[in-house]
Design goal:
about 20% helix; four-stranded antiparallel beta sheet
């Protein structure tokens, strides 16, 4: 099964951030597909509604299913 494209990963990140921290506004600071581990490693900066400052998070997403394997807030 081929890995998810960057566009698909960005869509998954949006859904996961909405669920985890109720954030709709985010930027991907870096994203890397690690084919050996089968993971997308995505570093994001997000802003929660009505928040003055942005926050960061690292998401490790399964490259084929899109499931979150790890989520680190404040990374």
């Amino acid at each position: 099964m081929p890995p998810l494209s960057f566009a698909e990963v960005k869509s998954r990140v949006a859904a996961h951030l909405k669920t985890a921290v109720d954030a709709d506004d985010f930027d991907i600071r870096s994203a890397k597909l690690d084919e050996l581990q089968g993971l997308w490693k995505v570093d994001v900066e997000f802003r929660k509604p009505k928040a003055m400052f942005s926050e960061t998070a690292l998401l490790m997403i399964d490259a084929t299913t899109g499931a979150v394997k790890e989520f680190r807030r404040g990374y």
